[in-house]
Amino acid sequence: MDTVSNAVHYVFLATAACFVLGLHLMNHPRTARRGNTISAGAMAVAIAATVWLVAHEGTISTTGWLVLASGGLVGAALGLYAAREVKMTAMPQLVSLFNAVGGGAAALIAVNDLLQADHPAALGARVSLPGALDIVIGAVTFSGSLIAAGKLQGVVSGAPVVFPGARLLNVVLPASFVVGTAWLVLSPDSRTALYGLVAVALLFGVTMVLPIGGADMPVVIALLNAFTGSAVAMAGFVLNETALIIAGMLVSSSGGILTKLM
């Protein structure tokens, strides 16, 4: 590691500590806003540090920087619009959409790393296993969160949607995760295993949420929030990024606790 890499590593550790502090402050209404500000500020610092590191390494072309900048600006604009214009009564739908974006982004990180690896077959279980788990959890979260948001918004029927063979399918699909994950770990260069795992996970997200009524969607959203955190943590293992791992596990554990309380 050179000086810049070491500095960025320590910045990531500091931001991870800020995430923990921010979550702690959210325990009380009087300090929740401060905790949210600290966490958001820490994330901004982590993003800036990542940009600094990537620029220092010189691994991205000018076109790549333009794509990243465009995506960042569009995302920031949409986030600002949502924060200002979405009514409080629509917050559950918005949170569900955020879950979908987070889970989908985490899954795409693993897909990209597996596809872009110079020697995929030599990745080993240290990358391919968390990568496979990232894909499964992230894809399930993406499609499941979209269905949950649709149910709350009235785009999808709020009543439980059950079709013949749904229960059997919801048993077969998770079993397919085990097979697909093992296949991808043993053969990280297999495009069939990769794309199959993505497709099965996306399908399970839909079949998992459809049979649940709209009244129970807040619980489902809390669970999917925990899934998002787990997917982000797995992405952290794939990228070997401490801040992502800690932030993801914080979201996962808090979402799991909230689901149990609800």
Write a brief caption for the model.
By secondary structure, the chain is mainly alpha-helical.
Count of folded domains = 2
> Helix count, per DSSP?
9
Q: What's the number of extended β-strand segments?
A: 0
Ends apart, CA distance between termini: 45 Å
- Helix and strand content put the structural class at mainly alpha
Radius of gyration: 19 Å
Describe the sheet with the most strands. none
As residue ranges, the low-confidence spans are none
Order of helices and strands: HHHHHHHHH
Q: What would your notes on this structure say?
A:
The chain has helices at residues 3-25, 29-57, 62-85, 91-116, 125-153, 166-186, 191-209, 217-239, 242-261. The protein is mainly alpha-helical and 262 residues long. The protein folds into 2 domains: 1-85, no CATH class; 88-262, no CATH class. The longest helix is centred in the N-terminal third of the chain and has 29 residues, at 29-57.
Give the secondary structure arrangement, pairings included.
Blueprint: H1 3-25, H2 29-57, H3 62-85, H4 91-116, H5 125-153, H6 166-186, H7 191-209, H8 217-239, H9 242-261
Helix pairs in contact: 1-2, 1-9, 4-5, 4-8, 5-6, 5-7, 5-8, 6-7, 8-9
